[in-house]
Write a structure and sequence with these properties.
Elements (H helix, E strand, L loop, with lengths): L3 H21 L3 H24 L5 H23 L11 H24 L9 H23 L6 H27 L1
Helix pairs in contact: 1-2, 1-3, 2-3, 2-5, 3-4, 3-5, 4-6, 5-6
Length: 180
């Protein structure tokens, strides 16, 4: 089904290679704008879906997939020490983000194979995790552009890591309940 929220999720996916390209070419300001625009599409697709009742089965898959692709690629890039960044995302956070997403995708795939009719609804913990991850990524780019060190950046790193772990554990728990 083609809906505005689904189109916004597709735009987010399409923006990922542009973000990576500009980032790797050292055009950090352009990369920041692309990342901000991609993050904005995440906010807008949810608002439009709810406001205009444009929720769809495709959207339940496409939106979280777009989030995971965007955040995983961002966290992997921002944790690489050989890139010309002043501030990097700690590698343990990147590993946590990517591992959580792999576990969720595998679990959701298993649950789908067990019952294709079941639609797993997102939980507020998942939405909060994505929000923290996006804010952290934008903050890291901002720090690298401005050379102004945000005093609470390490608190943001820890908060993002902790909420990522908590939501991952929640989704594992929820997945185990669904399998019973």
């Amino acid at each position: 089904m083609i809906t505005v929220p689904n189109l916004l999720s597709l735009v987010r996916i399409i923006l990922i290679p542009f973000f990576i390209h500009f980032f790797l070419k050292g055009k950090i300001q352009v990369a920041l704008m692309v990342l901000f625009l991609a993050s904005l599409t995440d906010l807008l697709d949810g608002l439009v879906a709810r406001a205009f009742n444009q929720r769809s089965r495709v959207g339940h898959i496409l939106d979280p997939l777009a989030d995971k692709l965007l955040m995983d690629s961002t966290y992997i890039l921002f944790s690489l020490k050989n890139l010309q960044l002043t501030v990097h995302i700690p590698q343990w956070i990147a590993i946590t983000v990517v591992s959580r997403d792999i576990i969720i995708v595998i679990g959701a795939s298993i649950l789908y194979l067990m019952n294709p009719q079941r639609v797993l609804k997102p939980h507020w913990l998942g939405k909060a995790t994505t929000t923290f991850q996006m804010i952290t990524a934008i903050a890291v780019l901002f720090v690298n552009i401005s050379k102004f060190l945000l005093p609470y950046l390490s608190l943001l790193f820890w908060s993002t890591g902790i909420i990522t772990i908590i939501s991952g554990l929640y989704y594992i728990y929820r997945g185990m309940q669904e399998m019973e």
